[in-house]
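Exercise 7. Predict the joint structure of the components listed below.
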Amino acid sequence: MNDASSDQTAAKKPVLPDAQTVTSVKHWTDQLFSFRVTRPKSLRFRSGEFVMIGLMGDNGKPLLRAYSIASPSWDDELEFYSIKVPDGPLTSKLQHIEPGDQIILRPKPVGTLVHDALLPGKRLWFFATGTGFAPFASLLRDPDTYEKYDEIIMTHTCRNVAELAYGQELIDGLHDDPLIGEMVAGKLRYYPTTTREQSAKMGRITTLLNDGTVFDDLGIDPIAPETDRAMVCGSLGFNKDLKDILEGFGLTEGSNSEPGQFVVEKAFVG
Ligand code: A2P
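Solution:
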């Protein structure tokens, strides 16, 4: 099924190396946007992996950054979720893309936020801050996630309510999804929190784990190595703090070569 023949998906003839065509763009806030591009027919990836994408720089050299693929592996297109940094070398330009534009996409997916890097378990936690939600947008739409676990808990911490919208909309849509809607029902718990604006649940997820609030709110037992597996994606500080917390619960970190009880990856921030 690996069709590596000429790629007919691009609407325009590619003028850049590894060019793909933007098919849609959605701006969620002043600082967040998502976009979809054509998918090279030969690209196979595991949900949760990232690829290098970017634009041609002013100096004629590609300006590339690692972006988690936010779409599931069965999707015809590729979706990405990005921050906009006013003086960020890539995102200051990338935020202005429109349908029909081209971006560069190196078709070599890699990453540790994949099911293969976790040992079997009963409950799977996805811990994200900000645009760290992106790999989980892929994993949440992957039937494997629901086949492998009895319960999935998606936590997302953002500064304000508007920053939760991309994740909230995706979660809402899952229940109506013809492919996985039935699998999601009764298995997926969503636990959004904000830190700088009033919402239903305030506070950093790290604090809420440390004081047990999360477990009380969800009516579940605390995290334990026998039952729980976790994937973490956020800023460096967040990843470090979550790693310490998960190790405190007795979980050990895994990788592609040595599956374990949790895995961590840094969200792109520049
Ligand atoms: P806070 O507002 O308390 O800094 P950022 O935009 O800085 O990447 O942060 C995104 C969200 O992640 C914010 O809600 C922020 O909370 C939270 N956050 C940042 N660092 C950590 C950390 N080390 N542990 C837990 N949450 C964090």
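Discussion. The pocket of adenosine-2'-5'-diphosphate is lined by residues 129-130, 157-159, 195-196, 204, 206, 235, 237-238, 241 (CB under 6 Å).
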